[in-house]
Amino acid sequence: PLLLRNRQQRLPLPIHPNARTPPAPLTMTQEDTQAPVNFWGEHPATEAEYYAAHGAEGESSYFSTPDDAGARRLFTRSWRPAGGGAGARPRALVFMVHGYGNDISWTFQATAVFLARSGFACFAADLPGHGRSHGLQAFVPDLEVAVADLLAFFRSVRRREEHAGLPCFLFGESMGGAICLLIHLRTPPGEWAGAVLVAPMCRISDRIRPRWPVPEILTLVSRFAPTLPIVPTADLIEKSVKVPAKRLIAARNPMRYNGRPRLGTVMELLRATDELGARLGEVTIPFLVVHGSADEVTDPAVSGALYEAAASEDKTIKMYDGMLHSMLFGEPEENIERVRGDILAWLSERCTPAATS
């Protein structure tokens, strides 16, 4: 499909006739709660076989951050096209950032494998306090540290000789979209060829933001007990994932944080999104933002505000009627294919052509 730059599009999608009704409550039997080894089920038996079946290769490792105050360890993964021999080069590098409470080893991999099969080399790390990386689970008291850690890892990949001259893109889902924008605002112009923002959390909507004096009270309490998991919130899986069977898969993720948000994390997200909300006009990176109109986790109207305010000359927004927050996993397969296709088309227009045999 042909993407239209600098134009807002509203795309009707084939969706379940009851898509606008609230998802059914997540109920799990004892059999349901037995976590499978992999998010795709028992077969293929290994990650390597799953990658090969989908035209990709992958590996995982730890990255230690260069920090005078003490190195921190990030768990990282990479995915690349299958069969790339010596001298074979990907079309571009895609640096991916996951969302709050999530990680890079469960369903997040599906998008990376899709992009790898399409000729891109993808790289991602578990954020501090997430997955297998360092830190208390779901505790992110300083996004500046997280941004610095990710940037150190991303730049270490970019410096590899085999990657010289390749365009480099950012890709972020939800909170990861906010982190991508923070990375952009903290790096020199031209360092990134573009960014794909999937339902980004780039500002807390006024309709869901706590009213005075709640933020002031939370700020005070967080100074003394920042790690307390006391902030009430709706079930994010039920709010994000449309297909009931996929809600069960998401809930089985052994690394997913299912507790209440920690006070310090919430206050830091409010601070960071306040900064982004005030700096939308400073965004100059080429970007594609995709958002579902029925998203109740991040506000599609805020994505519209980003599109309108950004100074980027190359910007595209796509809104998908009836889609929820988990656009690249939780929707029916035909919806996922539509969003993937739009992302692939946007990236392909801005990088080297795919290799031909």
From TrEMBL:
Tree of life domain: Eukaryota
Region ranges (Disordered): 1-23
InterPro entries assigned to the protein according to its UniProt record, in alphabetical order: AB_hydrolase_1, AB_hydrolase_fold, Hydrolase_4, MAG_DAG_Lipase
Pfam families documented for this protein: Hydrolase_4
SUPFAM superfamilies (UniProt xref): alpha/beta-Hydrolases
Bias (Low complexity) ranges: 1-13
Transmembrane segments: none
Domain annotation Serine aminopeptidase S33: ranges: 89-332
PANTHER family, alphabetized: PHOSPHOLIPASE-RELATED
Name of protein: Serine aminopeptidase S33 domain-containing protein
Organism, as annotated: Aegilops tauschii subsp. strangulata
